[in-house]
Amino acid sequence: MTSADRTAISLTLAGLALTLLGGSLMVVGSTRETNVSVGGVVFVGPIPIAFGYGPQGPILVLVSAILLLAMALVFVSLFLRRRKAEGTEA
Fold first, then answer.
1. Could you state, in order of their start, the residue ranges of all structural domains in the chain?
2. Most buried pick, 11, 28, 41, 82, via CB within 10 A?
């Protein structure tokens, strides 16, 4: 088993664990009456789709957009660094 295989399995298991944890927290949270706010941003190609609900919704949308932009910048910089190390310029 290669390092990439171990990483793929680890990421899959981490995603499954986070999904189960989120579902459990939703079940526990639904038993109480609370004030809920949600927000997020999804990019479909170059088109952003933003959604938010509740009193803190717009703030959560903004935070989600900033985090998504930061992740995209890290991804692009790592991609360009890898291409440069391989000897192919953009």
1. 1-34, 35-90
2. 41
Q: What is the rounded distance in angstroms from the CA atom of residue 32 to the CA atom of residue 30? A: 5
Which residues face 81 on adjacent strands?
none
Q: Are 57 and 41 in contact (CB under 8 A)?
A: no
Give CA 31 to chain center in angstroms.
Answer: 27
Dmax (CA) for the chain in angstroms is 58
46 DSSP 8-state letter: T
Query: For 58-88, how does the pLDDT look when each residue is reduced to its tens digit (9 = 90+)?
Result: 888 888 889 888 988 999 999 999 888 887 6
Q: What angle do CA 58, 24, 8 make, to 5 degrees?
A: 85
On the 0-12 / 13-18 / 19+ scale of CB atoms within 10 A, 18 is exposed
Which amino acid does the sequence have at 10?
Answer: S
